[in-house]
Fold this sequence. Notes:
2 domains, 10 helices, alpha+beta, 8-stranded mixed β-sheet, disordered N terminus, Alpha-Beta Plaits
Amino acid sequence: MARSGRAPGPWGRRTIEVVTDRGPTLDQIRAMLTGDSPILAAQRKRFRHLPSDPRCKLCMVPFRGLGAVAMKHMGYGQSPGNPSMCSKCISAMRARGVTGLEIPVTLVFSDVRGSTSLGERMRPKEFREFLGHFYDLATHAIIEHDGIIDKFVGDEVIGLFFGGISGPDHTAAGIAAGMDLAERAARPDATPMGPIPAGTGVHTGDAFVGATSLGDAVEDFTALGDTVNTTARLAASAAAGEVLISVPAAEAAGHSSEGLERRSLTVRGRSQPVEVIVERAGVAAA
C-alpha cells in the first residue's frame, strides 16, 4: 500500500513523492547511492558539521561526541550489525529487502611498498606507528576529496567514491585523492622516519555497493566486483610514489595524459591487459 508523507532517516523530513509501507522504493535507494537524492545530499552537509568521528559512511551522522548523543535519540544510532553505518540507513535498504545495488564507482587503492622488510627493521610498536601515519594521511586525502574510507587492510588503504557521497564527478575526485595521497606519502616529513613508499591505483567502473552480509552478522558497507579487484592489481603494480590511473578513469575524468608514461599491464584474472597512465609524486625510498 502506497502513501504520501514524510520519510524518516536518510530520506529527510521533506515530502517524498511515494513512500510504501515497506519503506523507500528501489528507485529511491538507487538515487541515494548514485547522488540523485537532493535530500540525502543536504543531510550529509548538515551532519558532517556535527561532532564527531567516526560517522555513518552514507549519511555522515556522528557516532561519537555530543552530536551523536543528540542524534541517537532520533534513531540514528550506530548499527550493531554494521558499525560503519547508522541504523536508519541500514533499515531504509532492508525495508525493501535490499543490501545494496550495482552502481558506477571509483576506487583508490594504496599500499606500502616493501612493508615486509620495513617491518623487519622496526619494532612492532614502531611499525604500528608508521602505519598509523599512513592511515592518517590517506584518510585526510580521501575524505578531503569527498570519498569515504572503505577499509584498512594491513598496509593497504582503500578509498571509495560514488555519486551518493562524491557527486557526479566521482572519478575526478578519486584521481585527485589518489594523487594527493601519493604526494603526502612522499613528503620527507610524512613520518618521523621519513617518507612512506606507497604505490597507488585508481580505476572506475560498475560495482556492487552495499552491505556484505545478511541477518544479524557483522557486515561492512563496501564495494565488490571486478572494478575493485582491478584497482587492487593496479596498486600492486605501482612503484613507490607512482599513481597508476586506468585509461577508462582518466577518460571519464577528463584527466590529460599528455606527456605522461603509458603502460599496458597484464592483470591476473583478466583476459585483456589494462591500459594505464602514470602520475608520479616525489620518490619515496623504502
